[in-house]
Amino acid sequence: MIQVENLTKRYARTVAVDRISFAVAKGEIVGFLGRNGAGKTTTMRMLTCFLPPTEGVANVAGFDVVENPMEVKKRIGYLPESPPLYPEMEVGEYLTFVGKIKGIPSNELARRVDEAAGRCALGDVKKKLISKLSKGYRQRVGLAQAVIHNPDVLILDEPTSGLDPQQISETRELIASLAGDHTILLSTHILAEVEHTCSNVIIIDRGHLVASGTVRELLQRMRGSEAIAVEIRYDGLEAADARQRIEQVPGVSRAVVKQSEPGRVLLEVESLEGANVRADLARAVVHAGWNLETLHAAAASLEDVFLELTAAEKSHPAASIEPPITTAAATPEVIQ
Length: 336
Hints:
Elements: E1 2-11, E2 14-24, E3 29-33, H1 40-47, E4 55-60, E5 63-64, H2 69-74, E6 76-79, H3 91-101, H4 106-119, H5 135-147, E7 153-157, H6 165-178, E8 183-187, H7 191-197, E9 200-205, E10 208-213, H8 215-223, E11 227-233, H9 239-247, E12 252-261, E13 264-271, H10 278-287, E14 291-297, H11 302-309
Parallel strand pairs: 3-8, 3-9, 6-7, 7-8
Antiparallel strand pairs: 1-2, 1-4, 4-5, 9-10, 11-13, 11-14, 12-13
Helix pairs in contact: 3-4, 4-5, 8-11
């Protein structure tokens, strides 16, 4: 659905996006992650035909963003961080206006408005002024305008920004319901949202693609070895003693104290690559006379991966995981 090769954007002496490449399949939801200033918005604007690339090629739904921008715009829907709404309009009136500009035939317009309002749970506010809606409902109206023409690709920039937990949950469910019918590129700073919603992830940092793949693939690549959680209990147990003893086990590269309280220590133990240290860890704890409460694979998170890959001292090899992931494209600001 999207093919990006060596996409680059330069501003005078600043390189905002530097030769990024990725492929995106149809019907997937892909998280597009990066710190502020990483190049996410610039990439989105090139995919939505707002900005021409300095170099490289981007094809969206079979059309080149430079050579056929109008064809691309017909096939994408875009929800920017601040939805481009007209507060003096009623919801139904606004969606009708957007539908006309997006070229929906007049004999289909009412049906498309009703469908978009229904998919985005706006049926009970169609007659309300947009200015009277809550932040959550305004986000829904923004999403409705993005899907009203049934685009092949959706690009959503911080769709849950500023929402309360209930609204975040509702918006997340709504986005998940759109998968399959649409290819979705989701930019967000809420990493738990990506883990729950997205099938694949792209991470960029300072204009470079630093990783792409599933969350599981990224975790495996980052660690390259097993991480094990070990909980030990014993009266008078000191965290430093527990860590020192565990690090003496053959095959252990290091042990990190995650939690410590009188008589209890929780450590995360990293093994050397290819080493299986679980049995030796258990024996070491028992031989020390301590009580082994738990020993299991440590749960890593996407946050761990993100912080590791975007650390300030990191260099920027474009390290993608095969096969290339799937992403989505965007459309121009509210209407095409």
